[in-house]
Amino acid sequence: GWCPLSPTGAQTTKLLVVPPWKPALLWERVTLICQGWGTTGATTWYKDGQNWRQQGQNHLIVTEGGTYTCDTPGTGRSPPVTVLHGWLVLLLPARALLEGDTVTLRCRS
């Protein structure tokens, strides 16, 4: 499933990551999906704070490591998602965690 990386319930732009683990790993074929209230096809993508793709689709298959955000008309810019190019990484679910939650960690190499 997809997992939002921003608080639920607010009318904001959300950036979903597939597969739903963080940090996202470049070699796992990461797809980012921008969810907002704007017009389809009007998504603007940013990588490392710089304009990456103007007026693009709402999904992006990541081919480079970096920190990504997206922007949709009406709801603004999403929280950032970092995609790493690491060799040994401790992963945790991308959903929000609360004290006392049972959580599965993954070590990927």
UniProtKB/TrEMBL annotation:
Which Gene Ontology biological process is one annotated for this entry? immune response
The answer on whether this UniProt entry bears the keyword Metal-binding reads no
Q: Which GO terms describe its cellular component?
A: external side of plasma membrane
What Gene3D superfamilies does UniProt report for this protein, alphabetically? Immunoglobulins
* The entry's keywords: Disulfide bond, Signal
Record-linked SUPFAM superfamilies: Immunoglobulin
tRNA processing as a keyword of this entry, yes or no, is no
All copies of the Ig-like domain together span 7-82
Identify the PANTHER family for this entry: FC RECEPTOR-LIKE PROTEIN 4, IMMUNOGLOBULIN FC RECEPTOR
Q: What is this protein called?
A: FCGR3 protein
| Originating species | Setophaga kirtlandii (Kirtland's warbler)
Phylogenetic lineage: Eukaryota, Metazoa, Chordata, Craniata, Vertebrata
